[in-house]
Design brief:
- The complex is a heterodimer.
- By secondary structure, chain A is mainly alpha-helical.
- Chain A has one domain.
- Chain A is 73% helix and 2% strand.
- Chain A is built from twelve helices and two strands, in the order H-H-E-E-H-H-H-H-H-H-H-H-H-H.
- Chain B starts with a strand and ends in a 5-residue tail after the last helix.
- Classes of the chains: A mainly alpha, B alpha/beta.
- At the A-B interface, helix 1 and helix 5 of A face helix 2, helix 3, strand 5 and helix 4 of B.
Chain lengths: 261, 334
């Protein structure tokens, strides 16, 4: 309960800060929309030439992409950890975080939230709506709940992987290039999993389970029964991976060396 | 009750050193050379509730590391730390609600939002009731004279203004123990005076324990009954400032301005057999001698008889001087 109220306090502050810089907000908004549009155009161009990929139609792939954008947006809004090493370890901001009576990871999530990213989710929903209209998909009332569950599961999988990577900074303060690399790999989840080689498929399912952020849960809505098992496993994977990340984080905080003055 | 109990506290850091050259760099990939550095080396002390303690030492003496262990930021390598009856890093979230922390070189406030918004957020974070907040903070805001600053964003404040707001922010939950790491660094004299006066006031009013590190000895003189002095991770003095002064500050400092150039050797030879420390002053031909009071006439006599003097001053030895001497000569006995 305390954490929920703190969450809303930070969010209110965040809004106030953002509204102070109205021009910035507008520019950010437009550039976000642009990058979404570029992605979409790319996808459409690719599928202008091929209408079928490993048995997946253009619209199905569009739907997966649309779905992927939603958990990705949620992740992007709350887990801005890409500069964690620089900001919190090297510059020593972690000291300040650790002197406050709220879990350190939670504080960092709140401090670094970027709610604009949620816009990407809106784009995703529009794409999904468009694709499902063309596929004439039908939904039940409980699909909304499934959708929320899958989105949260996907976002937590992402968060789990990236938080775990961020904890490396507690052990070694050297800068690594793992983060950008991982951002690239993370994009693989938005394409149908069976276009990849068996090994990659295994990795994307069990080791860096980015397939659970896009293709697996989306196949539930597409009625692809052969993937249902995986789809339902999404929230569980989210809990497992985020749980591991929190354990690693707590162990890392004990190892924190602090920055010199 | 003791606010702080520290026993044989130790913190070691691994420090990696890289080998030279390309081959060295390649070897570093597999096995890295490291040595273990003891930043804090088996220190023990206790601080009673309501004390103001100055924690001093040169850069790298281990002050910040100790403070970070006492505030739960760092995990000690060995030893016992009990602060406010708790183990700081084990029960961190519960523990930090009972302390206030100000790091002079690092802001606790949010850069972009107004000061009072930061306060409001911290009030929520520390779960302070509206009533407690009003009662307590009104007084603090008034005492620090930050009322007019409350609606300004932190980035628009001067350093002195910001520092006063930082202090207020650290006290929102009225903690019984306050850690101040370089609280007056870079501040002008008026702000320093205000902050010192304020610290004394809350110490008297709430019996708040204060542990402060500083490079500014005048802070210590104004505030602290007791100093703990640290050198290379070890405590070299723990006791009252008065005793320190009596023991080390006896004697006088004589500043001579000579008419012509003079060498250190010549001066040392001149006062051979006497207990005198010569130091070169900042201006040309200015030298100071630290002399036990009893030898004052003897030293002046010898110097004046031999050289022509333009000017001469006799001063008490300052605390700063005492501390510098201690560091130069090593451990204090007594």
């Amino acid at each position: 309960m305390f954490y929920v109220s703190i969450f809303f306090q930070y969010m209110a502050q965040y809004m106030k800060t953002k509204l102070q810089y109205r021009a910035d907000l507008l520019v950010e908004f437009i550039s976000d929309l642009m990058s979404q549009a570029v992605n979409l155009v790319f996808l459409l161009v690719v599928f202008g030439h091929t209408s079928l990929l490993h048995g997946w139609t253009r619209d199905e792939i569009l739907f997966i992409y649309g779905f992927f954008l939603v958990p990705y947006a949620v992740f992007g809004a709350f887990f801005n950890l890409w500069d964690f090493n620089e900001r919190y370890i090297v510059r020593g901001e972690m000291d300040r975080v650790l002197t406050r009576p709220v879990h350190s990871l939670f504080q960092i999530i709140l401090e670094r939230m970027e709610l604009e990213s949620l816009l990407g989710g809106v784009t995703g929903i529009i794409i999904m709506a468009y694709a499902s209209a063309r596929l004439s998909l039908s939904f039940h009332w409980y699909d909304i709940l499934m959708f929320i569950l899958f989105v949260l599961g996907g976002a937590f999988i992402y968060a789990g992987v990236f938080v775990s990577l961020a904890t490396i900074s507690f052990w070694s303060d050297a800068r690594t290039s793992i983060m950008p690399m991982m951002y690239n790999i993370s994009n693989y989840g938005r394409y149908p999993i069976d276009i990849y080689h068996r090994v990659i498929r295994y990795i994307l399912t069990w080791i860096l389970p980015f397939a659970f952020v896009g293709v697996y849960p989306a196949s539930y809505f597409l009625g692809k029964k052969e993937w249902y098992g995986y789809a339902f496993f999404t929230p569980i994977m989210g809990v497992i991976f985020f749980g591991i990340a929190v354990v690693l984080w707590n162990a890392g905080v004990k190892r924190y060396r602090g920055a010199g003055n | 009750m003791n606010a702080i109990e520290v026993e044989n506290l130790r913190k070691e850091f691994k420090s990696y050193s890289s080998r030279s050259g390309l081959i060295g760099a390649f070897r570093d990939l597999f096995t890295r050379n490291y040595k273990i550095i003891r930043a804090v080396n088996d220190i023990s002390f206790t601080v009673k509730q309501g004390e103001i303690v100055g924690y001093i030492g040169e850069n790298g003496a281990g002050k910040s590391t100790t403070i970070k262990m006492l505030t739960g930021i760092l995990t000690p390598t060995a030893g016992k730390v009990i602060v406010n009856g708790m183990n700081p890093h084990k029960e961190r979230e519960k523990f930090v609600r009972t302390i206030g922390v100000v790091f002079g070189q690092r802001s606790q406030l949010w850069w972009d939002i107004a000061v009072q918004e930061s306060f409001r957020l911290l009030k929520k974070v520390y779960r302070v009731s509206d009533e407690d907040y009003r009662q307590h903070m009104e007084h603090i805001i008034e005492a620090l004279d930050i009322g007019p600053l409350l609606d300004k964003p932190v980035r628009k404040l001067s350093l002195g203004q910001r520092m006063r707001c930082e202090l207020a922010a650290a006290l929102i939950h009225n903690p019984p123990l306050l850690f101040l790491d370089e609280p007056t660094i870079g501040l002008d004299v008026l702000v320093k005076l205000k902050i010192r006066q304020f610290l004394k006031e809350i110490n008297e009013k709430y019996n708040t324990t204060i542990l402060l590190t500083t490079h500014d000895i005048s802070d210590i003189e104004a505030l602290c009954e007791r100093v703990i002095m640290l050198d290379e991770g070890k405590i070299i003095y723990d006791g009252s400032l008065k005793r320190l002064k009596e023991k080390w500050g006896e004697g006088k400092q004589i500043q001579f301005t000579f008419a012509g150039e003079i060498t250190f050797h010549a001066l040392r030879e001149l006062t051979n057999g006497l207990q005198v420390i010569w130091k070169k002053g900042e201006q040309d031909n200015v030298w100071t001698a630290q002399v036990p009071s009893a030898l004052l006439p003897e030293v002046i006599g010898r110097v004046v008889a031999r050289y022509s003097i333009q000017d001469m001053n006799i001063n008490e030895i300052s605390t700063e001087e005492i501390i510098r001497n201690i560091y130069e000569e090593g451990v204090v006995h007594g």
